[in-house]
Structures are given as structure tokens and as C-alpha cells.
Amino acid sequence: MMPAKIAMLALVVLAACAPEPPQTAPAPATPQLSPQLRAIYGATEDDGRTIPAVNPKYLSEEKARQEVDYWTDKPPGTIVVDPWARKLYLVQKNDRALRYTVAVGEDGRGFAGKGHIPYQRDWPSWTPTQNMIKDDPALYGPVKDGLEGGLDNPLGARALYLHRGNKDTLYRIHGTMDDSSIGKATSAGCIRLFNQDIIDLADRVRSGTDVVVLTRAQSGQGTVPPGQPLPPVLYSADDFPNPQTSTGEQT
Fold first, then answer.
1. pLDDT confidence bin for 205, thresholds 50/70/90
2. Edge to edge, what strands does the sheet with 158-164 contain?
3. Per the domain annotation, does 75 fall within a domain?
4. N or C end: fewer C-beta atoms under 10 angstroms in the chain?
């Protein structure tokens, strides 16, 4: 065999034995959102302020507010917060509820039981607690005397104030400017919703609305018919410190 043919044969053999180059995994596709969902969470004007649209990467059909089956003996109009599942339910008639996705922090996990909402505020002001100022004076010191309501305020567009009897529990259900936190358990804060959702919820809530905040053992109640086992809790016990009532207004 001529040397040139031998060399060509060797190249063919080496090519056949060589491993194929690794395939680059395609980038995950951006979730396709319906036009209706984009409209619901689009930019909106409220009291002279423009609330930005929610970034599509923080949205999904599952996260969006929606009417769902919900079995409970609580009367329509009751708010049920399930911090362990990161959901809030506004009870409707005929075993239905409006479901909102929430973010929950340590203080949002620290309250459980019954309360009521005597009032709410549009674009509420906010004051950090003394503990917050002590723990992070560089961050909270400049606003130690309070922060007026607005687009930079951590309470967002609305706040519902939870009382037990005549006492303010310092527990809030409110909006947030941090859309990336919705659906997550974060290090601090009460119950937070997309601003578009807290405006919708606040429009449906009246003074005196009852609120029930579920414990870890109660998580999932209402999402399945009576007599069926509850769904598994999303978090382990390590994710939730021992509950205790919040001792200061948080975000």
C-alpha cells in the first residue's frame, strides 16, 4: 500500500476511535406567559406612582393569582395564610378561594393562629425596629426615624395590619419591591406579595377581616377535600425556627 494511502487510513481509524465532542446543553427556555398574565403583572399606575411590571423570569402560571378549589369551614372573606407553602388564600363561596403566592421571612413564620385586620394603608410608611438598627446601623441608621411610602419603601403599595384583640401583633401582609423574593423563604420579613397582587387583595378586604395563619402541622389544609391526607410540607424543620410572636415591625 502506498504511504499516502496508509496515512489516510490511519487518520480515518483515529477519527473513528476518538470520542465525540461534548454537546453543549441548550439554555433553558424562558417561560412562555399568556398575554393575560403579562397584562395582570404589567406596569400599572397607582396614586401617581408607576409600579414596574414584574420581570417575566419571576413569574409563572403557578405563581400567578388564581381561583382554586379550597375546602374550609371558614366563611367567605377570611384570609388564610400558609407560610409553609408560601401561599395566601382569600376564601370564596362554594369551596373556592383566590390564591396568591407570597414570600415569607422569619417574622412571617413567627406568628400563627387567629387575628383580624382593623385597617390597611396605601403606600404605608415604615420604621425599622431598634434591633434592626443595632444589627445593621449602616443600612437602617439613615432611616431610623422612618421612611415615607413610595417605590423605595419595603412595605410596597399596600399593607394590611394584623391585630389580635385590640393589640397590634406587628405582623403585616404587604407588597414588596423585591419581586425575586416571591415564592421563597427569605431571611427577614412578614408576608409579602407582588405589588400587583397586594393591590388586588387590599381592594377585596374590608375592616375586620379575619385572618388565620397556619402552623407547620396545618400546612396544606384546604387544598384537599376533607378526609384526604395533607400534601407534604415544602420545608424541613431546620428552615423554620421555633415560632414566636414578632416583636417589631418587619418588612
1. very high
2. 66-69, 96-101, 87-91, 79-82, 209-213, 113-122, 158-164, 167-176, 191-194, 103-104
3. yes
4. N
CATH number at residue 159: 2.40.440.10
Write out the residue range of the structural domain in which residue 129 sits.
69-239
Q: What is the pLDDT of residues 51-92, one digit of tens each?
A: 999 999 999 999 999 999 999 999 999 999 999 999 999 999
Catalytic residue of the set 17, 116, 163, 190:
190
Q: How many domains does the chain have?
A: 1
Look up 174 and say whether it is catalytic: yes
User: Is 34 inside any structural domain?
Assistant: no
Active site residue 17: no
CB-based contacts of 104, cutoff 8 Å, min separation 6: 83, 86, 185, 186, 189, 190, 191, 192
Cβ–Cβ under 8 Å, residues 209 and 161: no
